């Protein structure tokens, strides 16, 4: 038997924070690749500390639903899972290349734990960013005549976060699909506040590389870009800002195709996922009405 455990931050203050995690777990569960699919959170129940005890399978793949390598993936999650012998050097990562390491956990020593790198640095995340642009515009061929901005928090908060933003922006740029591709930040230059300064394209899709919609993606970024003076009054999509149409997509982690990245992380660690990638890709292409 093999199990998948998706671990995420969660929030005591924002009930929507855990919604993408549950949605992606449901998608993976329905694809049938794992005997069990569980979720665990740092700031919600069920907790990361307890989640391994709820798993019956003896082969467990743990995938962090986080954007970058850093404090949570290197310290908090291994500690809460009680991974024996954990050493971040085992990933031998440059901040983008963490793949997986196989360990045991002290409170469930009979289980083999495959601890994976975060979803946000996986190459498959690039496709999710592009899919997010397709979703917000309603155009599966969006690209020509459009600019694309990939938005992150900023290097002062987490240097590796900026690496992930640049990595995916570079990969999308190499596709030669969009007329312009730019990495922007909330707290560093180039700042998302000045989004229109960085694009000649009249239409610009803005996709935050965040897992869930919350304070930053629902309030800060829309107000910083000038989509609205008060997030509580809402904003148009697209919104007219200084001669540009801004298509604001919200957090990339809410895109259904994220389940694909979770599966790919587990597969890289040795999980037998069968044809589940094809199932997920087909299902997440459908509208909610078509999927039911």
From TrEMBL:
It holds the Pfam family CbiX. One of its GO terms (biological process) is cobalamin biosynthetic process. It comes from the Archaea. GO terms for molecular function: lyase activity; metal ion binding. Keywords: Cobalamin biosynthesis, Cobalt, Lyase, Metal-binding. NCBIfam families: PRK02395.1-1, PRK02395.1-3. This is Sirohydrochlorin cobaltochelatase. It comes from Haloferax volcanii (strain ATCC 29605 / DSM 3757 / JCM 8879 / NBRC 14742 / NCIMB 2012 / VKM B-1768 / DS2) (Halobacterium volcanii). The lineage of its organism: Archaea, Methanobacteriati, Methanobacteriota, Stenosarchaea group, Halobacteria.
